[in-house]
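Recall the central idea of this unit: under ordinary conditions, the amino acid sequence of a chain determines the structure it adopts. In this exercise we apply that idea directly, starting from the sequence alone.
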Amino acid sequence: MALRKISQMSQADHVLVTQAVADAERHTSGEIVTIVTDLSDHYEDMAMAWASAVAFVALVTYATFPDFYIGLIDGLTGGWGHEYTMGEYVALLLTAVALKWIGTWLILKWMPLRLALTPQATKLARVRSRAISLFKVGTEAKTIGRTGVLLYLSMKEHRAEIVADEAIASKVSPETWGDAMVALLDEVKSGNPGAGVAAAVAQMGVVLAEHFPKGTENPNEISDRLIEI
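Accordingly, the structure predicted from this sequence is:
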């Protein structure tokens, strides 16, 4: 399913980030790619999982206390009692459970609630997976020296990832990007995603310049512009 295209970043943010990338790459043979998205996954499976859990609890409850719920039905129908056959009772039970499932699923169409009920580990894994997928398409092996690195920010999950190409990953451990991630998230939490991405890029440039200094021949192999998807 295609994710909704948004504009989390202003034109000024685009200019700021693009300039930050250009400045960082003046001192390194590395190539920095920046991508910002509104949402990395729609978590439809989480909505279905919660709906199924609620339906199961309802099924157990109805089956455990049938007289109570049959009494409620009789009350709603004017107090006329009815001796339900096993087939009728099963039909009522399945209908009630189905309504619970559908109702819960519809409620969870509201994305803020769906995200709130999605485990942090799941969101982290989905953002990482999306970042790696985008890295493979637009950054991996796109430079002669395998020196591309992707900075990926997913706004609604409040998550960011840095994914590096083969040459960089062999010399730079994931922990080394810690300062860049802190710089990014501090600004994002303050409502300045553009400034956050630019600050992270600057920190990434410092790391890249140390391990991959600028060479005599170093064409700009990947566009510096910020990408929104």
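The two ends are 13 Å apart (CA to CA).
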